[in-house]
Amino acid sequence: MIVKVEDVSSIKKKLIFEVAPEKVDKEIGRAYKKIGKTAKVKGFRAGKVPDSVLEKYYGAQMEQEVLTRLINDTYFKALDENDIPAIGEPNIVDSSGINKGEAFTYEAEVEIKPEVTAKDYTKLALEKEKLVVDAKVVEGRLEEMRTSRSQLEVTTRKKARKGDSVVIDFEGFVDGEAFEGGTGEDYLLELGSGSFIPGFEEQVAGMKREESKDVEVTFPEEYGQAELAGKQAAFKVTLKEIKEKVVPEIDDEFAKGFGVDTLDELKGELQKSHETQEKNRVENDLREKLVSALIERNPIEVPEAMVAKQLDYMYENISNRMQSQGMSVAMLGITPENFRENYRDTAVEQVSGNLILEAIGRQESIQADESEIDAKLEEISSMANAPLETVKKYYAAPEARVGLMAQIAEEKVISFLLDSAKVKEVPPKKPKKKTDKKTEGDA
């Protein structure tokens, strides 16, 4: 086997192969021998088909089998012998046919992990938000918790108003004809939720119990059912019951529902949680600024295979997070295709940052030691609320352990860089003001 290696770019190499005729002939004979054991040709018994006949009927199958075997046998051997850090699958850009007595040649392009040498990474000028804990956040969280514990109760009020949930019967008509999906009985509708056709809920508000009314609306132009889009419709609506939200008092009894004895304890837990969240947010923001500064000083090419792998990781992450909340990415209109399109730049930046941090760790001889690995395993066990032995067993697998060591080393590199950086504390960013538009819909 003759192999020639050419540099295509800093992240891609081309391998040019030539396999000797003797090796090709040997593999052709081997393939026909295998095919002949099961080949079915009229007039011949299984296993007794002559080679000349096999060549006529099974030549294409032989060629595919030999081509696959020769590439597998030579490609990986060449990577090992030439110390090529390939990532992803090879792209076969050219190949000759498989012919007796002739050499087999092919060319393969493969992406490689770039050799990064980081520079200008110490004494970086960075800005860090000052940690400020807003007491109003705790009050807001209490209100959210209070609302989550609210219950619907039938009200004695005669008229429905925004915020009420009403039980209605309705039947919809377009051009005087009832349409499919336009009928409902004992339907519970929250007035002001925006879950019905625009204008519908506003006209139900003000109706009395047992009142019937014609509600006229127009379907939006972008409505999901094409036959209804943009059409005017009339609904016969009967309001059967009015319910309103009843929220509990925020007191010690309310706090007990969340596993503590007093309201003060609950507020303390919320304050502690908020402080932790803000601290993590500030630290993550500083880390992002650090990585951005490194990328700016160390622009590198990033292999598509690494970007694709990072996108897969990110997509799986958000899918699992949504699933843990009883939702799915599909509910947000996210597909694997539009996710990759929208987050590609983020993935490129993350891969670039990881490669640069890895290079700095190598240049500064920063790596994880055994004591740090044990401490990290205990931290993971505590955070995941999982038995330590279970965590240790999982990270005993070679791939998982290598990943854990890389994570620890990266954290140490970040600490090293921040220790040398010139970090200036700045006031926290002011939250953006919400626009108060009646026509603004939920995302």
Q: Any idea what the radius of gyration is?
A: 34 Å
Q: What is the highest CATH level, the class of the largest domain?
A: Mainly Alpha
Please tally the β strands and state the result: 11
The CATH H-level superfamily of the largest domain is Trigger factor, C-terminal domain
CATH architecture of the largest domain: Orthogonal Bundle
Give the amount of beta strand, in percent. 15-25%
Percentage of residues in helical conformation: 40-55%
N- and C-termini, Cα separation: 60 Å
- Point out poorly predicted stretches: 434-443
How does the major sheet shape up? Answer: 5 strands, antiparallel
Gross morphology: extended
Number of domains: 3
- How would you describe the oligomerization state of the chains in this entry? single chain
Helices, by number, come to 11
Q: Helix-strand pattern, N to C? A: EEHHEEEHEEEHEEHHHHHHHE
Mean pLDDT: 91
Structural class: alpha+beta
